[in-house]
From TrEMBL:
It comes from the Eukaryota. It comes from Aspergillus rambellii. SMART domains: Dabb. Pfam families: Dabb. SUPFAM superfamilies: Dimeric alpha+beta barrel. This is Stress-response A/B barrel domain-containing protein. Transmembrane segments: none annotated. Residues 4-100 form the Stress-response A/B barrel domain. InterPro entries: Dabb, Dimeric_a/b-barrel.
Length: 104
């Protein structure tokens, strides 16, 4: 099975909120474990360049998982992701997530 690529976009107008979210992603990258081992294959996060095509979404995240099962664990059980959601919830105005199996 090919890796699962997940794209998440946040719309956060408050700069301090964006900075807090970006810092929490750094924590997540170091602390996300499943069965005591890191399970996120790759992660990338940053502030989006201003562009009318992004429709106001200004933080972009890409995470790569070995399987849908790992992504489901991330969504439902991962303590590091729960901590990230707690930081994001009060500052985000909108969020968009999509995922796909990489065919390349």
């Amino acid at each position: 099975m090919a890796p699962i690529e997940r794209i998440t976009l946040f719309k956060i107008s408050d700069e301090a909120g964006r900075i807090r979210l970006l810092e929490q992603y750094k924590v997540l990258a170091k602390t996300a474990v499943k069965d005591g081992k890191p399970y996120i294959l790759a992660a990338a996060v940053g502030t989006s360049y201003p562009d009318p095509r992004n429709k106001g979404f200004n933080v972009s995240v890409k995470t790569t998982f070995a399987s849908l099962e790992d992504m489901k664990y991330y969504d439902e059980e991962c303590e590091a992701h729960k901590a990230l959601k707690a930081v994001a919830a009060p500052v985000r105005e909108d969020v968009l997530t999509t995922y796909y199996e990489n065919i390349l």
